[in-house]
Amino acid sequence: MFLALVSFSYTFDACNRPERHRQDPEIRVKSDRIAPQASTDFCRSFQANQYRLPDMKNAIRLALVTAFPPAQRSLNEYGLHLAVGLANHPAVSEVVVIADRMEAPLPELVLNAKIRVERVWTFNSVGNAPRILSALRRCRPDGALFNLQTATFGDRELPAGAGLLTPLLTRLAGIPNGVIAHNLLAGVDLEQTVLKGQPIRQRIARTGAAVVTRAMASADYITTTLPGYVEILRAQCPRSAIFHVPHGTFDTEKRDLSPFGSRQKRIVTMGKFGTYKRLETLLAAFDIVRRDPLHRDAHLQIGGADHPNAPGYMNEMAARRRDDSGISFTGYVAEEDIPAFFENARLCVMDYTTTTGSSGVMHQAATYGAVPVYPLIGDFVDLYRHEGLTGGHYSPGNEVEMAAAITDLLSNPDTAAAIASANRDAVMQIPFSDVIDFHIARLASLARREGF
């Protein structure tokens, strides 16, 4: 097991470096830079096959293992929406959030009285699994839900890998549990990483990735936000209970969005930058866009922070553009500020060199009417094909193509407005309440089977 976790380091490192990802040849045959609307039949299928709650005498107590605000680790906002959604469900009596400890003390959020937050585990600690298991035994939940991605428990190899063994250990401890896997190490094409052309290191990396993937899939059930990951898991873990449950749309409130043509020519991007999410291509493309006299008034707003593996990256980028009044760096975007961040923008550009799961930024852009501009690679292709999300596209790392896609959408507001409307209709088909219903039904069934 120890050697497997060490070998996991190769794959983990490859997932967190800015390497290129193979394009999708089937879609890239288009000569224009605006992708057509895709089918949403898969999403409708998910809605039509909701799991029903079993007959229950009492409401259930659930534990949620996740990064959680006001801490700012990856998936913290998704964890918040999970906690609130679970607590708002009448079949749940209490949600105990088993959360990450904060580096600096901040006041906890004021939440539903049914939510209790326990700060238990520490980012980059190898001892997180026993701490989480101890907390689960103390709170005695009827079921536990893990909200995970590859670097949830650390950006170093052993802490990250050891933490991802926790769902398996939780099941062995007799606690029914499920996993939401936002990305998978097993889904990485190692020929597109720093291990290209190194077959021996690739075999070592695959061994470590397989151990961690099987440990996660050894939970009572595991869901992924993209159907491609389901295929990978079913091939590697044929006896596991594996489901595709889409990302879900947080905000389904009916709102009057600003007419697209009346919005300022504001372009936004958001994320944790410095590894596979970059800014160099976007900044170069934005300079090209502003050479057009019609778009000299465009403004680029950059929200977000450094990726843990790239400290100082955002400060470096901001320093390079300190004298450019057309570009602003706004830092971390809090949950309550997200609607305004996207609603007042025309476009949301994603400067990615590879992908590691269903894009939360793309879902937020679609929810609030900003047209996405993205590379047609990896998981963006899944979103295009299976959730109906579309927009402008370009080859990764190609600032000329990115600038052309941005210019096309800014110059054709009617086309862009139609894309924004279609994207919003698509994401509204999968409200986050459907995601919550699925997990409560699964955990309640497991709890009843185990006699909780």
Mean pLDDT: 83
Looking at the structure, what is the overall shape?
Answer: globular
- What structural class results from the helix and strand content? alpha/beta
What's the arrangement of strands in the largest beta sheet? Answer: 3-2-1-4-5-6-7
Largest sheet: 7 strands, parallel
Figure out the total of helices: 16
In words, what does this structure look like?
With 452 residues, the chain is α/β, with parallel strands linked by helices. It has helices at residues 2-15, 41-48, 76-87, 128-139, 157-163, 166-172, 199-217, 227-236, 280-289, 313-320, 338-343, 360-367, 378-386, 399-411, 413-428, 432-450; strands at residues 60-66, 92-100, 115-121, 143-148, 177-181, 221-224, 242-244, 266-273, 299-306, 327-331, 347-349, 371-375, 392-394. Helix 7 links the parallel strand 5 (177-181) and strand 6 (221-224). Helix 3 (76-87) crosses helix 16 (432-450).
Kindly summarize this structure in a few lines.
The chain has 452 residues and is of the alpha/beta class. It has helices at residues 2-15, 41-48, 76-87, 128-139, 157-163, 166-172, 199-217, 227-236, 280-289, 313-320, 338-343, 360-367, 378-386, 399-411, 413-428, 432-450; strands spanning 60-66, 92-100, 115-121, 143-148, 177-181, 221-224, 242-244, 266-273, 299-306, 327-331, 347-349, 371-375, 392-394.
